[in-house]
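Go through this chain.

——
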Amino acid sequence: MANKITSLFNIKYPIIQAGMIWNSGWKLASAASNSGILGLIGAGSMYPEVLREHIQKCKAATDKPFGVNVPMLYPDLKEIMDIIVEEDVKIVFTAAGNPKTWTKWLKDKGITVVHVVSSVKFALKAQEAGVDAVVAEGFEAGGHNGRDETTTLTLIPMVKEQLQIPLIAAGGIATGKSMLACMVLGADGVQVGSRFVASEESSAHQAFKQVVVEAKEGDTQLTLKELAPVRLIKNKFYNQVQDLYKTGPTTEQLKELLGRARAKRGMFEGDLDDGELEIGQISGLIHDVKPVAKIVEDMVTEFEEAKRLIVSF
């Protein structure tokens, strides 16, 4: 399955395991890389020295390429970037910020840089900044998301039409069929998040994994656009947010309700009532918790079978 993405990252399959806060520790990243895809450690939920520990444990658990996902809206950014360089990480995915801020600095140190975007406009800005590839993430995605609500089916061909560098599709991808669909639309590879939340190696709380498995169509909603748009499973906290919206709240009132560490409380500690439960719409198609290796195997098998079926039309 060799192509631009497998060559760029030196991996077997053009699949990236998304670096998700409170879900993507070293166990998930190393298992993903050992399965032939690119594993990512999610730095967004880690203090700098915690990130260093995860990088070191990941290096001990795999001899395959892996990377770190860095949301640029978090504090300690310089310290995090310095640790990435000190620990000789060769791949960095940046998100939630201006790619010009860190791309050249990282590339000057021999690091491959990918930036996550939610629109054609920002894909072109990332390309101009010198990134090696772009992840275009549609509205279906879990976690923090774009404000324009552009779906993956629409976004990928629009970005492909104007982009000159490799394109990775994200948002609503959990099966080999959806992977093939994105690549038919022009993507060179896919980034998968929610499916890997419901894996044995994910650092998510078991109670959160079970909620993901039980989720049905319509159980998630994008909200809190005034702060940072986030897709949540509907629970007690989500209902509190909706009740507050009925009063025409200020940004400060929304921040006060959100408080601190609510995502950690939900996804990592398993508070299913008062925590933030971030997951994608594709959770309605996730019915079990499996080892990463089995998830990858099933995706690749389904991809190849779907490709043969299309050729036979």
User: Anything to note?
Assistant: Residues 4-203 form a domain with the TIM Barrel fold (CATH 3.20.20.70). The chain has a mean pLDDT of 95. The longest strand covers residues 66-71.
